Amino acid sequence: MESGQKYLTAVVKLFGPLTRNYYIRAILHAALAVPAGFLLSTILGTVCLGIASGIYLLAAVRGEEWRPIEQKPRERPKVGGTIKQPPSNPPPRPPPDARKKQPEVGGQVNPIPVEVE
């Protein structure tokens, strides 16, 4: 759920079927469109409210109703729940003599011989 929706969801849930029912919303939008239609400057708003009223009426006829989207509690993933069968063989390792650390020889060998004059 978006952060801005949770406050509006609480208000809509508070008024119950008055705000949940799309027939009531369609009538409310149509009633708000009537006074706005008397002024030329609000004709566009009247048209928008009329279209919204028609959409709500169509949704109500089809049996739709507003239902809040609740945030589901997060489930913690089970540790080890995805492992079906643990490995039966140990991981491959080099032989014991190769595992011993080789002593480091100091310096590098210069491939070009250097002569001091």
Automatic annotation (TrEMBL):
Broad class of the protein's primary localization: membrane
- Gene Ontology, cellular component aspect: plasma membrane
Q: Where in the cell is it found?
A: Cell membrane
Q: Where is the composition biased (Basic and acidic residues)?
A: 67-78
Which keywords accompany this UniProt record? Cell membrane, Membrane, Transmembrane, Transmembrane helix
Q: InterPro entries annotated for this entry?
A: Cyt_b558_asu
Give the residue spans that cross the bilayer: 26-59
Annotated GO molecular function terms are: heme binding
Q: Which intervals of the chain are annotated as region Disordered?
A: 67-117
Key word Cell membrane present in the record? yes
For this chain, the family text in UniProt reads: Belongs to the p22phox family.
Q: How does it assemble?
A: Component of the phagocyte NADPH oxidase core complex/cytochrome b558 complex, composed of CYBB (heavy chain (beta)) and CYBA (light chain (alpha)). Component of the phagocyte NADPH oxidase complex composed of an obligatory core heterodimer formed by the membrane proteins CYBA and CYBB and the cytosolic regulatory subunits NCF1/p47-phox, NCF2/p67-phox, NCF4/p40-phox and the small GTPase RAC1 or RAC2. Interacts with NCF1 (via SH3 domain). Interacts with SH3PXD2A. Interacts with DUOX1, DUOX2 and TPO. Interacts with NOX4; this interaction mediates superoxide generation.
User: In its UniProt entry, what is this protein called?
Assistant: Cytochrome b-245 light chain
> Which organism is this protein's natural source?
Lamprotornis superbus
